[in-house]
Design goal:
- The protein is of the alpha/beta class.
- The protein has four domains: 102 residues, PriA, 3(prime) DNA-binding domain (GIY-YIG endonuclease); 195 residues, P-loop containing nucleotide triphosphate hydrolases (Rossmann fold, 3-Layer(aba) Sandwich), CATH 3.40.50; 184 residues, P-loop containing nucleotide triphosphate hydrolases (Rossmann fold, 3-Layer(aba) Sandwich); 84 residues, Alpha-Beta Plaits, CATH 3.30.70.
- Helix content is 31%, strand content 23%.
- It has 17 helices and 27 strands.
- A seven-stranded parallel beta sheet has the order 8-9-7-10-11-6-12, sandwiched between helices. Strands 13-23-22-14-21-20 form a six-stranded parallel beta sheet, with helices on both faces.
- Helix 1 crosses helix 2 and helix 13 packs parallel to helix 14.
- Bound molecules: adenosine-5'-diphosphate and zinc ion (ZN) (2 copies).
C-alpha cells in the first residue's frame, strides 16, 4: 500500500503540517508529488496537494482515509507554484517542505505597519520615446515570445543603454494584454531612484517587496497580487513567487548578480527559477545585464536563449567613458608608495576645480582589512569562524561572519611580538587619506558601517545625487545601478584584489565589478573618465573591462573554463560535511568521498577533501571536496545517493 502526505491549506503558516492519506490502487499511476487531490477532512471534503509519497506510515492504516479524487490539473496558481516547488526539490536536492516554504507565501497577520520613509511618486509621466535600438529590442523580444517554442531573452545592453525603458515598454504591453509582470532586482538596487521610475509610470498597479518588510506585510502584498489588485511585482529573489494568476512577463535585471543565488537551503538560482516559472506560466522571461554571467551567455550561445543587443548609451550626448589602466608597480618604482597614483590624484584635483563629482570605488571583494604579525606572519582570526578579523576605527577587530568583536591586541596572540599591523586599506582609511589630501572636498563614505542603519543607504545616495558632496567613496554598493549625471571621474582602487579570491569565478566577478564601476562615469552628456589602478594591468579581466569588451572577456574566460573543466564547460559538485565535532566532520567527508569515488568508477575528477576556505563558521567544522564531471545527470544522481548516507550534516551544490 502507498501513502500520501497532503497539505490542505497551502498558505498555512506551517507547511510541515501535512495529513496522511491512503492512495487507492487505481490512483497510483496518476498521483505524484505536486498532484492536486480531493480528500475527506473532518466532515468536509477539501482539496489539497500531495507533498510526499511513502510505502510506510507511523499512523495505523485503519485510522487513515483514502484520497477521494485526483483533481484536474487545472492551471491554478497554486498548482503552478507547486510544480515550481517540485522542480526546486529535484534541481537543488532539498526536501519538498523546504521548497514549499520558499515558493509559497507564508500566512501571517500584519502587525502595525512600518511607516514608509518615502512616498514613491505615483502618476502618469509621459514615457520616454524609445530610440531605434530600444525599439528593435522590444519588437524582437515580443516576436520571440510570440513563437510557439519561445525562448528566454537575454537583453545584453552596455551600462546606460536604457534597459529600464525596454523593461517598462515590455511591461506596458503585458499589462495592456491583461496579464501581469514581475521584475526582479538585486536588493541593493531597490532604491528610491530606481523604484520611482516604475511607480511614476505604473502607479498603484505596482507592489514592492523587500527584506525590510515584515512577513505579514509581505503576505499582504502577495495577497494583493492574488486578488488582482496589483499587476506588477518588484523585488529581490522572493518576488518571483508572487501568485499572479496570468503572469505574462518575468524580468531579471542585473541577471549576473550574485544576490540571485540563495545562500540558504534550497540554494536555488533565482535566474533558473525565473526561467522555470516562465515555462510553467507561459510567460516571457528577460534576463538583462551589461555583463551577462558566463553561464547565461554560454546557454545563449547554445541557442537556448535569444540575445538582444543595446550597444549604445541612450541619454542624449552620452558616450562610453574613456578608461585608463594605471600600473601601480610603476608607481612604486617611481617612489610613490601611496594609495593614489599621480594620475588619479591629478584627476581628482581637476574635477574638484571644475565642480564635478568623483566616485572612488574600493574593490574590497577578497580583501579583508586583516591584521597580521610582521614577526611570525600569522593573521588574527575569529575564534569561532576561522576567518580573519577586520579592523575598524577605534581599534576594534570584528568578524564579518558572526559579529564577534575584540579590542586590537598590543601583541601578537601567537608569538607575543609587538609588531602587528594591517595590510592595505579599507574605506575608512581611504576616507581619511582623501580628507587629508583634498581638505576642500566634501566627502561621503558608503560601506557596511555607514549603511547599517535603516534607510542610511538611501540617504547617502540621495545626498550625493543632490550634490551635497564632491566625492563618494565606497565598496561594491556604489557601483550598482545608480545614475549620477554629474559624476565624471570614477577611480577604481585595488582593481585586482578580487582576482585573488580562491574561486573559479574570480575573473568573472572582477570583470563584472570593473565594467559596472566604469559604467558609472559620464552617464548624461558630460564626458566620463575612469582610472583603474591595478597590479595586474595585463589580466584579461582588467583589459576587457577597460575596453568595455564583453565578448573578448567571454572568449578568454571560456578557454580557461574549458581547460580546467569548470562550469559551464562541465558540471561541478561541491560536497560539504559539517559538524560541531571536527572528527565527525572528518569521518563524514571521508565516507562521502569514498562513496563518490566508487560511484564514479574512474570518470570525472575529484578534488579534496580539504577544509573549506572558511573551515569553521559559528563553531561548526566544515570539510569539503569537489567533483568535476561532464555529465550533470550523473552528479544529480550521486547527490541524491549521498543525501541518503548516514553521518553528519551535509550541503551539496551542483553548478
Ligand atoms: P541601463 O539600465 O541600461 O544602465 P538606464 O535605463 O538607467 O540604463 O538608462 C540610462 C539613462 O539613459 C537614463 O538616464 C535614462 O533616463 C536615459 N534614457 C534611456 N532611454 C532613453 C531614451 N530613449 N531617450 C533618452 N534618454 C534615455
Ligand atoms: Zn606573531
Ligand atoms: Zn566569527
Amino acid at each position: 500500500m502507498k501513502f500520501a502526505g497532503v497539505i490542505v491549506d497551502i498558505s498555512h503558516k506551517d507547511v510541515d503540517k501535512s495529513y496522511t492519506y491512503i492512495i487507492p490502487e487505481e490512483m497510483c499511476s496518476d498521483i505524484e508529488i505536486g498532484t492536486p487531490v480531493t480528500v475527506p477532512f473532518g466532515r468536509r471534503r477539501i482539496s489539497g496537494f500531495v507533498t510526499e509519497i511513502t510505502d510506510t506510515t507511523d499512523v495505523s492504516p485503519e485510522k487513515l482515509k483514502p484520497i477521494e479524487a485526483v483533481n484536474a490539473k487545472e492551471a491554478s496558481i497554486e498548482h503552478q507554484l507547486m510544480q515550481l516547488a517540485v522542480w526546486m526539490k529535484d534541481t537543488y536536492g532539498c526536501t519538498m517542505n523546504q521548497a514549499l516554504k520558499t515558493v509559497l507565501p507564508v500566512k501571517k497577520k500584519v502587525k502595525a505597519r512600518t511607516k514608509a520613509e518615502d512616498v514613491l511618486p505615483f502618476g502618469k509621466e509621459p514615457p520616454k520615446i524609445l530610440n531605434g535600438e530600444q525599439l528593435a529590442a522590444v519588437n524582437g523580444i515580443l516576436q520571440e515570445f510570440g513563437r510557439p517554442d519561445r525562448r528566454p531573452a537575454v537583453l545584453f545592453g552596455v551600462t546606460g543603454s536604457g534597459k529600464t525603458e525596454v523593461y517598462m515598454e515590455l511591461m506596458r504591453r503585458t499589462l495592456d494584454a491583461g496579464r501581469q509582470a514581475i521584475l526582479l532586482i538585486p536588493e541593493i538596487s531597490l532604491t528610491y531612484q530606481n523604484l520611482s521610475r516604475f511607480t511614476k509610470v505604473f502607479g498603484e498597479q505596482v507592489g514592492i517587496v523587500h527584506s525590510k518588510l515584515s512577513a505579514g506585510e509581505k503576505y499582504e502584498c502577495f495577497e494583493q497580487a492574488r486578488k488582482g489588485e496589483i499587476s506588477v511585482m518588484i523585488g529581490p529573489r522572493s518576488a518571483l513567487f508572487a501568485p499572479f494568476s496570468d503572469l505574462g512577463l518575468i524580468i531579471v535585471d542585473e541577471e549576473h548578480d550574485g544576490a540571485y543565488l540563495s545562500d540558504s537551503v534550497p540554494r536555488y538560482s533565482a535566474v533558473d527559477a525565473a526561467v522555470k516559472r516562465g515555462e510553467l506560466a507561459g510567460a516571457g522571461v528577460v534576463l538583462g545585464s551589461a555583463t551577462p554571467s558566463v553561464r547565461t551567455f554560454h546557454t545563449a550561445m547554445d541557442r537556448k536563449y535569444a540575445v538582444f543587443l543595446l550597444k549604445h548609451r541612450a541619454a542624449a550626448g552620452s558616450s562610453l567613458p574613456h578608461v585608463d589602466i594605471i600600473d601601480m608597480r610603476e608607481e612604486l618604482k617611481d617612489g610613490n608608495k601611496g594609495m593614489f597614483s599621480r594620475k588619479l590624484e591629478a584627476g581628482i584635483r581637476q574635477r574638484l576645480a571644475e565642480k564635478e563629482q568623483i566616485m572612488l570605488f574600493l574593490n574590497r571583494r577578497g580583501y579583508s582589512g586583516s591584521i597580521s604579525c610582521r614577526s611570525c606572519g600569522k593573521v588574527i582570526k575569529c575564534p569561532h569562524c576561522d576567518v580573519s578579523l577586520t579592523s575598524h576605527r577605534g581599534n576594534i577587530l570584528k568578524c564579518h561572519y558572526c559579529g564577534f568583536t575584540m579590542n586590537m591586541p598590543d601583541r601578537c596572540p601567537s608569538c607575543g611580538s609587538p609588531y602587528i599591523a594591517g595590510f592595505g586599506a579599507g574605506t575608512q582609511k581611504i576616507e581619511s587619506l582623501v580628507k587629508k589630501k583634498f581638505p576642500e572636498a566634501r566627502v561621503l563614505r558608503m560601506d557596511m558601517d555607514t549603511t547599517a542603519r535603516k534607510n542610511a543607504h538611501e540617504k547617502l545616495l540621495r545626498a550625493f545625487g543632490e550634490g551635497k558632496a564632491d566625492i563618494l567613496i565606497g565598496t561594491q554598493m556604489i557601483v550598482k545601478g545608480h545614475d549620477f549625471p554629474n559624476v565624471t571621474l570614477m577611480g577604481i582602487l585595488a582593481a585586482d584584489l578580487s582576482l585573488n579570491v580562491s574561486s573559479y569565478t574570480a575573473a568573472e566577478r572582477t570583470f563584472q565589478l570593473l565594467t559596472q564601476a566604469a559604467g558609472r562615469a559620464g552617464r548624461a552628456g558630460s564626458a566620463g573618465e575612469v582610472m583603474i589602478q591595478t597590479y595586474s594591468p595585463d589580466h584579461y579581466a582588467v583589459t576587457a573591462a577597460a575596453a568595455q569588451d564583453y565578448l573578448s572577456f567571454y572568449k578568454q574566460e571560456l578557454v580557461y573554463r574549458k581547460l580546467l573543466s569548470y562550469p559551464p564547460a562541465g558540471a561541478m559538485m561541491n560536497v560539504v560535511a559539517m559538524d560541531e565535532q571536527e572528527d565527525a566532520a572528518e569521518a563524514g567527508i571521508k565516507a562521502f568521498y569514498e562513496f563518490s569515488v566508487s560511484f564514479l568508477a574512474g570518470k570525472g575528477t575529484v578534488i579534496g577533501p580539504v577544509d573549506t576556505g572558511v573551515s569553521k563558521i559559528k563553531d561548526i567544522y566544515r570539510k569539503q571536496f569537489i567533483i568535476k564531471h561532464p555529465d550533470r545527470k550523473i552528479l544529480l544522481e550521486l547527490r541524491d545517493r549521498i543525501q541518503l548516507l548516514p553521518g553528519c550534516l551535509r550541503q551539496i551544490d551542483i553548478t
